[in-house]
Each structure stands twice: as C-alpha cells, then as structure tokens.
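Q: My labmate handed me this sequence with no annotations at all. I'd like to see what the chain might look like in three dimensions before we decide whether it's worth expressing. Could you predict it?
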Amino acid sequence: MTARLALAFAALSVAAGVLPGTGLAEPTMHLSVPASNGYTLQVKTERNQAIVSVWRHRPGGASLSSTYYANNSADPEEGIVADLGAAGRIDLRFSPNGQTKTIRIPRGKVRRPGCRYPQRLTRELGTFTGTIAFHGERGFAAAEATTVPGSIGPSARPRCGGEALLARPAYGALPTPFGTEHVRLLGHAVFAVHSHATRDAPGMTYLLVSTEGEKVLYFAARIELVEEGLAIQRTVEVSAPSSSFSFSGDLSSATLWPPAPFTGTATYSAHRELLYGDLAIVLPGADPRRLTGREYNVRLDAGR
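A: Here is what I predict for the chain of 304 residues:
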C-alpha cells in the first residue's frame, strides 16, 4: 500500500530479523511479478516469515491489498516455501548474478515513514527459480511464474526499529491475535472502529477514518488467522471529499458516506456507543462485510 493512511496502521507484528547475539541483520529476500486485474504480487521475507502482498493502486481511486503472512516459510539458504492455503503456493530458490544494488532510505519526516538517520543497504541481485502459483480467493487476482528477478540482502527493520516519525501522538494500541496494532492521528479528527476477536472467530475488522485538509481518508482492514502459521490481512483505502464525513462539535455524533468500494452509510451515536446503518465493505478475496452494529467498538476523537 502506498497511500498515507495505510502507513499509519501497522500490519502484523513481524520480528525484526536480527541474528541472535550479533546485532547483524539476517538476509531478507524480495521479488515481485505482475498479477491479473491490475494487481502486483510482491514477496518479502523477514527471518523465517514470508510476506506475500497482492496489491493494486490506481491514482484517484481505491488502494486494495491482501497480504499473506506465512511463518516458517523462508530461509536465506533454502529459499522460500510458502503455503498460502486456498490462495496457492510459492516455492523458490535464489541464484545471484554477481551484480548488486544500493538502496537509500531517507531520514524520516513528519507524515512520511523512514529511519531516524539515512541508511544505505546493498543487496545482491539475481534470479528466483521454482514456482509461483497464486489464485486469489474469489478470483480477485492471479499470478504464475517459474523465473523471477529479485534480490537478497540486509533488512531495514533493525536499523530503523519500526519507527513511525509522525507529528501526532499515538491514538492507541489495539490487541490482535497476531500482535499489536498502533494507530496514530493524522488529521483534525479520527474515527476508529474495530470488532471483537473471539475464540470461535479469530479475526478482527477495522475501520479508520481521518480528516486531512479537504479530504477524508477511509481505511478498512480484516485480519484473520486462517490456520496455525498463516494469517491474512485484507485492506481497502480510499480518499473522499470532506463532505463524506461530518461530526458534531461535541463529538457526540457523526455520519459517514464513504465512496466505493464501500457501500451504504453509517451514523454514530456516543450516547448509544454504537455505529448503526448499512455501511459495508468488500475486501479483496472476501465476501461483503458489515461495519456497523454491536459487534464493533467505536471511538471518535479530535486531533491535537
């Protein structure tokens, strides 16, 4: 995801790839291939976890993605062997071609992610060979390949520490079955909604709405534990005119009219502690999901 609001919403809690007792970064792997329906499939690894993101971003339109977190699926020596459940499988080995590439990571600034100090990472270039067989649920995207250019090298995570250098303080930390989600204020107001995870339904749905200038940013996500060692995060992000989100001065009520791929509208009542209406979202590879009702905790806050 490349748009701003998604950067404020940490995905899953992924280990920071440092070899025990050394302080040295464990090598990470990276590759990408085109997928159908305008999507791109990208594979990144951190330690033994393969992170497979299938995303689409259109200027002026919605950004959509489904990201598969497969544990015990990556090894710099052995390659990537990731079982994505119903979505397919990745089985790749890396061969260097003798060339390298230096990646420069700038110092982070307000509202732009980065590191506290500039970084330069040198990665080996080469070719991944094997199998990419991805068939997204409900046919949202597909990709197949046997030979893909890519790279291997140090991760930026230990050097940057996952820092989010934003001007505004943290809104809060939301627990999930897979880690902790940190949500930070980005505008003059923020509206946060999240469902409850239960033993019978080990997943959570989020809606985050933030005002920024004359725009409103809507970000919805669903995180699910599919099976032991495999989790999926599906997201949609879209901007809309400020008129699509209104709230009272005392923050006792609010109304939402987000654009497609959202459907319907919702009204918030602080007195009832409830978001009600027919607001729903279709996330990549998933059925439509309602975003209102007693299933959700709701909070409306104003930026500082």
